[in-house]
Design goal:
216 residues; alpha/beta; 8 helices; Rossmann fold; two-stranded antiparallel ribbon
């Protein structure tokens, strides 16, 4: 059985996820403010003794969705064999995700957008209706998500659609939003560290998520 065969089998029979968290950074700046916020959230998870894994999308070679619809049959993306092929099992197995992106042009980064688009394979569509009715195969599994957007400017309008661009697709996929954290006035590397209220909120989000995962 090759890797894709195993992946298809896992995607067609999605089992109950484990109480662990996959934290995903969409920032090309290693160790920057986005990564610092993720680390602060995961420190809250550590306090609750919740297992987690972090990854930076800029480290992963993967392509954007090409809308081939092959995943309608395989239930997972098999057209492209790349970094996402390796990430899919972790997504399926994790009860919660943390998605964090800096703001680029009033929106999320291209890495985060491509990642979210590659989750399209988890939707089911009714081809007998137009527009097609749909549902997510990740729904009704008590999956959770934390959303973070990091902005250089200081006003909500300058953040544009970054928060919504992550939150709405994840909720459509069946993830319950545990918290949404907008971070402002953070450009220079490490600038967010002096924002005590933001850092406290990030830590508390990790604690809150950890406590919820304990009782699922």
């Amino acid at each position: 059985m090759n890797y894709f065969d195993q992946l298809i089998k896992q995607a067609k029979r999605i089992e109950s996820p484990a109480p662990k968290v996959l934290a995903i950074s969409g920032s090309p700046r290693k160790g920057g403010n986005t990564d610092i916020i993720i680390k602060q959230i995961t420190s809250g998870l550590q306090a609750e003794k919740i297992n987690y894994e972090t990854l930076n999308l800029a480290d992963i070679q993967f392509k954007a969705c090409v809308a081939c619809e092959r995943c309608r049959v395989d239930k997972i993306c098999t057209r492209l064999y790349d970094g996402m092929s390796v990430i899919y099992p972790d997504i399926l197995a994790s009860q919660a995700l943390i998605l964090a992106s800096p703001v680029h042009n009033y929106n999320i980064t291209s890495w985060m957008k491509a990642f979210i688009d590659r989750l399209y394979c988890f939707y089911e569509f009714d081809n007998n209706t137009r527009p097609r009715k749909w549902h997510s195969r990740l729904a009704n599994q008590q999956r959770k998500v934390i959303i973070v957007a990091v902005c250089e400017q200081e006003h909500k309008e300058d953040m544009g659609w970054a928060l919504e661009a992550m939150q709405k697709p994840m909720e459509a996929l069946g993830f319950e939003s545990i918290g949404v954290l907008p971070v402002f006035s953070a450009f220079e590397k490490g600038a967010v560290k002096i924002q005590e209220e933001t850092m406290e909120k990030a830590y508390q989000l990790g604690v809150d998520l950890g406590q919820q995962l304990k009782y699922i």
